[in-house]
Design a protein that fits this description.
With 261 residues, the protein is an alpha+beta fold. The protein is built from seven helices and twelve strands. It has two domains: 166 residues, Alpha-Beta Plaits (2-Layer Sandwich), CATH 3.30.70; 71 residues, no CATH class. 28% of the residues lie in helices and 26% in strands. The protein is globular, with a radius of gyration of 19 Å.
């Protein structure tokens, strides 16, 4: 596969997607945690900067081995001028061999964002609804010229890794595990203007579209850890209207709603 990076914006190339799956066991930290660690490693190694890390829920079935929720994680990495996909592949491989838990079936997929085809996106959607095989994933990645590699156990994580790339590329699936500012916010009240300054959240949307618009100086009660979701290719914080007697107009949507993404 050719290295990405022919066109640069400033010092950075267009984004590549780096997805991992099945890196954990019942006693270890989950794949989402490993993806956030890998984000730091890629930046520390000079590969570029990461704009976001997303979680993508896959099909849950007794026919599919998974640890707890069967989800993949995807990193959106903007390559630096010194970095190549080959270098990213090498660094990710070393990380997964070192950090994947005993008994895991870790998989990795790397693809230039712009090169994720309709077939790969369809594979991602299918992985949310049905049982797929390694053979299907490997054949598709080979045909599309994408990096797809397994590292531990049965290497079954290659299925979720390829699906994670497809789902992240389509821009209508998943919630954010990392985005500038969201993990540092304390549970308290903010204005919309403050949240825009403190985070890279692109859109603030009322979960019930008929309720109204949010003003810059409106008060928003952040009452649990922020988890923006992906809607129309934008990081989106879903909000609910507070009761009239409350002093704050809005609050972040409950986990039950966010988990639908």
């Amino acid at each position: 596969m050719a290295d990405a990076g022919a066109e640069y914006v400033g010092n950075f190339a267009p984004a590549v997607l780096v997805a991992i799956d099945d890196t954990d066991n019942l006693e270890s930290r989950g794949t989402g945690f490993r993806a956030r660690q890998l984000r730091e490693v890629l930046e520390q190694e000079g590969c570029g900067y990461v704009s976001d890390v997303t979680r993508h829920q896959l099909f849950v079935s007794p026919l599919i081995p998974y640890t707890s929720h069967n989800s993949a994680a995807c990193i959106r990495l903007h390559l630096s001028r010194r970095a190549t996909i080959s270098l990213v592949h090498e660094i990710c491989g070393e990380f997964l061999r070192r950090e994947s838990a005993m008994g895991s079936d870790a998989g990795l997929c790397i693809a230039p964002f712009a090169a994720v085809s309709r077939k790969v996106r369809e594979f991602g959607r299918a992985a949310k609804q049905s049982v797929l095989t390694q053979e299907q994933a490997r054949a598709l990645a080979r045909d599309e010229g994408l990096v797809l590699e397994g590292y531990t156990g049965t290497q079954g994580g290659v299925i979720g890794a390829l699906a994670g790339v497809g789902l992240r590329a389509q821009g209508t699936d998943g919630r954010f595990l990392w985005l500038r500012g969201i993990r540092e916010l304390l549970p308290r009240r903010y204005t919309l203007k403050e949240l825009k300054a403190l985070t890279d959240i692109q859109c603030f949307r009322v979960a019930d579209a008929g309720i109204g618009e949010i003003a810059e100086d409106d008060c928003i009660d952040i009452w649990w850890s922020l988890r923006p979701v992906m809607i129309d290719s934008k990081s989106t914080l879903l909000l609910e209207k507070q009761h009239e007697q409350e002093s704050c107009e809005w609050r972040s949507a409950p986990k039950e709603l966010v988990k639908q993404y």
